Amino acid sequence: MIVVPRLLLILLTAAISAYHIVLGVYTLGTPQSPWPVVVSMVLYAVATTLSLWPGRRQRMPAWLAAGDGAVSVVMLILVLNQLDPRADNGYATWPIAAVGTLMTIVVVRQRAWFAWSGVVVLALTVLVWADDPVALTTLGVVGSAVFVGVGQAATRAVGLSARDARLYERAARRAVEWHAREEAERSERGDRVRMMTTVATPLLERIVATGGVLDEDERAECLRLEAALRDEIRGRRLLDDEVRRVVSAARQRGAEVSLLDEGGIDELPDADRARIMAEIAEHIGGSEADRIVVRTGAVDDDVAVTVVGLSRRPDEEEDAVTLWLEIPRRA
């Protein structure tokens, strides 16, 4: 993509505007009186300077756009009233092109309504003065409208390109943040697995030493370790220190706990995930259910996580639902 420095564009536009003034000076002998033309040149120079003056904001202030429109009307009235519409005035009709240039500056600085209003006034003024529709083409009114249209299209294209660039930059930043978070969580899960492997090693050695003959407490401990390892693999972002603690406590009292992270909360901000983890820990810790299932929802679902608790009923085949919690994606 070719990038043209802003200062170079300003200087180029200033040169074109200065050319209109040079034409006005060159044809001072054509009007009936040169003084209205001189006043027009001064007004045009001031309006162009203010419109091209570098500033922080690209969008032109409304008062300046309205001022440019007023200057355009005054210029046309002062100069055209000094010319004979039936004569060949040559470059003495320079205000027509000058107004086109000024309105192009206005539209580039994101004041399209003012710019097109100026073009309409230009066309009506020339039409009334010349009393001939052909003059709209021969005196440059159509060309001025084309320049304003091209300026508006170019401004819109640059605006869209800038917006797309910002979107790409934001997406790239999010991708980097997501990758860093993934790496951190993968490292943390690895540390957890290594820690649990260290914890499980004595039990494994005990199994080997006894030939697989374990008492009830040792069997229960093996099952809890297996479930904890499974949590690290399948639970993913459903786990933090507090959730691990309450899940371990639930299993020690005999409950069966399943954590299933299917990627539904991967894109949530850290604050929302912390809130969800706190609610999961609170309800698991306060539940007496015999079986607890925690599952993430779909990415486009309003519910981030569903927690279901089931309790056995001695006299019935089906378990009773004693806990049903839907944690919203947003607080």
Describe the structure.
By secondary structure, the protein is of the alpha+beta class. It has two domains: 6-167, no CATH class; 235-328. The chain is 64% helix and 9% strand. The chain is built from ten helices and four strands, in the order H-H-H-H-H-H-H-H-H-E-H-E-E-E. Helix 1 (6-26) runs antiparallel to helix 2, helix 3 packs antiparallel against helix 4 and helix 3 (62-80) packs parallel to helix 5 (112-130). 24% of the residues are buried.
How many discrete domains?
A: 2
Order of neighbouring strands in the sheet with most strands: 1-2-3-4
Strand content: 5-15%
Discrete helix count: 10
Q: Classify the secondary structure makeup into a structural class.
A: alpha+beta
Largest β sheet strand count, sense and barrel closure: 4 strands, mixed
> Compute the gyration radius: what is it?
39 Å
Mean pLDDT rating: 84
The low-confidence runs, each spanning 5 or more residues with pLDDT under 50, are: none
